[in-house]
Design goal:
Blueprint (H helix, E strand, L loop, with lengths): L2 E5 L5 E5 L4 E5 L24 H11 L7 E4 L8 E3 L12 E4 L4 E7 L3 E7 L4 E7 L1 H5 L2 H11 L8 E4 L9 E2 L1 H8 L8 E3 L5 E3 L1 H11 L7 E3 L14 H4 L5 E7 L3
Parallel strand pairs: 4-7, 5-6, 10-14
Antiparallel strand pairs: 1-2, 2-3, 3-15, 6-9, 7-15, 8-9, 8-10, 11-13, 12-13
Length: 256
C-alpha cells in the first residue's frame, strides 16, 4: 500500500511512497518567494502572481526531479488524458498526463481539486490526473485507468493515490454542483444534506469509487486524508481563501 510522507530535502514536499520505480510528490505552500495572497510557494502562472516568483518557485519545487524536463499542463476541469514524452514540444491544456518516459516529470497545479496519481507497474506507465468536481463528473479517474489498460495494463494491478485536496469536512456545494454529481451512478452516496440549499460533497470517496469501478482493486487505492481547507498552514485552498496560490503534483519514472 502506498503512503504519503513529508520530507524536507532537497525542499519541503509531500512524497508519495510505495509506487516502485516512481518518484512522485506534492509541493505545499511553504518555502517559496511569492508575496500574499500567493505566499509563498505558488507554482501557477495563471493566478496573476509575479512571473519571476513563479519561475523561482517552480525551480525549487522541481528539485526532487533532478535534471528531468518538466511538462506542465494547464487545468481545464475536464476529462481529457494525454500521453506525453520527451518528444512532446508543447503540452496542450488538460487534466491528465501519462508517460512511460523516465526523461520527463509530469506536473499539474492544485488548490482543492483532487490529485490522482496512477501507476501500472506491469507496463511501466503512469502519471497524474486533476479531478475537480467537473473532472470528477467527466470521470477522469476512469479515463486514466482506461488509457493504461489500452496500453496493456491489467487494471487490477494499477495503483492509485489521492493526494491533498478539499475534504468532505470543508466542501459544501449547492444544487448546481450536486445535480451533475448525481448523474454519476455512484454520485448520490457521496452527497450529504447540510440544509435545504447545501450539500457536503466527498470527492475523495467518489473518486476512489470511480477508480474501483474502472477495475482498480480497492486495496490499491490510497487516500492521503489531508484536507486543503483544514490545513491552510500547509496547503493553498481556493475555496477557503479566494485568490491564492497553487501547489504542484509531480510524477516521474526512475531510470532503470
Amino acid at each position: 500500500m502506498a503512503s504519503f510522507l513529508w520530507k524536507t530535502m532537497p525542499v519541503e514536499h509531500l512524497a508519495l511512497e510505495g509506487f516502485e520505480g516512481v518518484t512522485a510528490w506534492m509541493s505545499g505552500r511553504r518555502g517559496g518567494v511569492s508575496e500574499p495572497p500567493f505566499a509563498t510557494l505558488n507554482l501557477s502562472p495563471w493566478v496573476k502572481d509575479a512571473p519571476a516568483a513563479v519561475t523561482e518557485n517552480r525551480r525549487r519545487a522541481l528539485l526532487p526531479a533532478g535534471s528531468r524536463r518538466a511538462l506542465w499542463a494547464r487545468p481545464q476541469h475536464g476529462g481529457r488524458v494525454r500521453a506525453v514524452s520527451r518528444a512532446t514540444e508543447d503540452v496542450e491544456p488538460g487534466d491528465g498526463l501519462l508517460t512511460d518516459d523516465p526523461g520527463v516529470v509530469l506536473a499539474q497545479t492544485f488548490a482543492d481539486c483532487v490529485p490522482i496519481f496512477v501507476w501500472a507497474d506491469d507496463i511501466r506507465w503512469g502519471g497524474i490526473l486533476h479531478a475537480g468536481w467537473r473532472g470528477t463528473v467527466a470521470n477522469i479517474a476512469a479515463a486514466g485507468v482506461r488509457t493504461l489498460v489500452a496500453r496493456g495494463a491489467d487494471a487490477k494491478r494499477v495503483q492509485a493515490a489521492i493526494g491533498p485536496s478539499i475534504g468532505p469536512c470543508c466542501y459544501e456545494v449547492r444544487e448546481d454542483v450536486a445535480g451533475p454529481i448525481r448523474t454519476l451512478p455512484e454520485g448520490q452516496q457521496f452527497l450529504r444534506v447540510v440544509d435545504e440549499d447545501h450539500f457536503s460533497l466527498d470527492l475523495w470517496g467518489l473518486n476512489q469509487s470511480l477508480l474501483v469501478g474502472a477495475g482498480v482493486s480497492p486495496d490499491h487505492v490510497t487516500l492521503s486524508g489531508l484536507c486543503t481547507g483544514c490545513e491552510l498552514s500547509l496547503f493553498f485552498s481556493h475555496r477557503r481563501e479566494g485568490p491564492t496560490g497553487r501547489m504542484g503534483g509531480f510524477f516521474c519514472l526512475n531510470d532503470r
